[in-house]
Amino acid sequence: MKCHVPGPNVKVLARTVHALARFGDDLYLESLSDCILLRTLNASESAYAMVKLNKNFFSHFNHNYYCVDVEGLKCKISMKSALNAFKSPAHMDKQVENLEIKLDPHSSKLIFQLNCKHGIVKTHYVSILDCKAMQAVYTKDLVPNRITSSQRLLSEALGNFQCSDDQVTLEVTSESLIIKNFGDTPTDISRIIRSQVTIKPFEFSSYTIGTDTNITFTLKEFRALLGFAEGLNLPVQLHFEITGKPAVFVVHNGTTIEAHFVLATSKPDIGTQYTSQHTTNSERKRKENSNDNNISAKKVHLDEDLSNQFQEDSNLFNYIPNNMSQNNVRENINNVEKANSIDTNCDNIPASPTSRMRIASVFKRCFESTFDPRIIHGVVLAENSDSD
C-alpha cells in the first residue's frame, strides 16, 4: 500500500487519530481497494470506533503497490506510536505539505513520511504488532429511533455535567429528549449533584422516535466523538433501539470520510435507585422524628425543671420573721451538712436537699426592718459619715 494525503487532509487525519486514542490503546489499519479503515476498541470492550477514509480523501492511492496478488493489508500498531507521528493536529496544515503512508506486507514497519515546508522531511517507522483486523457486529439501518443533531447542541448540553460523571442516560420520547447523569455506585444521594437537561424535538435537525426508551452509556467516549465532530464541523447522527442494544453515532460528510462510534448501552437500575432514595428519605424522616422527639422530651424536662425552679424561686425571697434567731439558722445549716455527708454507696440515695435555708440566711438582713450595727463584732475602722 502507498498513498498520499494532501496538506488540508493531514489535519483531518491527525484529528482522527487523536479521537481514536481516547477510545483504545491499539490502532487497527486495513487497506481495501477503495478505502482505508481505522478501528479501535476500548479495554472494557464497551466502545468501538471505526473511521473510513474513502479513496478520494487521498491525492494518490494504491492499495497493492508492493504486491499485486494481495487484496488488502491488515495490521495493528500501538496508538501511542501513532500519536507521535501526528503531534499538534491544529497546526499540521500550516507545517505539512503532504503525507505519504507506506505499508509493505513483507516489512514489519508502517511508514509515515511527513513532507513539511522548507524541504523538511520527517519519517516515522511504526512497529507492526500483529497482522490482523477487527470488526464489530452492529446495525444502524433498521433501528426505530434516529436523531440528527449539531455537535454544538450536544456539547452545550454536556457542559452542565461534572467531569467526574462516568455515565449519562438518555430518556427519549416523542415529545422530548432528556439527558441526565447516572451513577451506579451506592453513595449518599445528598452528596451527589444531579444534572438534567431537556431538549425539545424542534431543536434537532431530524427527530424520529418509534419506541420510547432510555439508554445509558459512558460519558468519556461520548465527549470524544463530539470533539471529533466539532473538529470537522459535522453533525452527529444517533441510531439506537432499546436498552441493551448498542447505540451508533455516525459522523460523515458524504464523500470523503465516515466515522461510526458504537457504544454499549445499559438500563439504569431505577428500582434500586428508587429503593435507595426511598430508604434514604425514610432514614432522614426517622432521624428528624427522633430529633423532634428528643427536642420535645428535652423541652418537657426543661419545662418541669423551670416550673420547679420557679416554685423554689417564689419561696426563695419569702419574708423571714424577725424572731428567727441565728442559732436556729446554724442548726438548720448543720442539719443540711449532715444530710449531704450520707454515704453515696447506699442503694437508696436520698434526694438532694434544698438550699432554701442557706440562701435565706444569706439574704436575711435584706428583709429585716432595721439594721443594728452592734451585731457586727470587731473594730470599726471607718465610721459612718452621717450625723445621725
From TrEMBL:
The keyword ATP-binding does not apply. Residues 272-294 are annotated as: Disordered. Residues 281-290 have a biased composition (Basic and acidic residues). InterPro entries: DNA_clamp_sf (IPR046938), Rad9 (IPR026584), Rad9/Ddc1 (IPR007268). GO terms for biological process: cellular response to ionizing radiation; DNA repair; DNA replication checkpoint signaling; mitotic intra-S DNA damage checkpoint signaling. SUPFAM superfamilies: DNA clamp. This is Cell cycle checkpoint control protein.
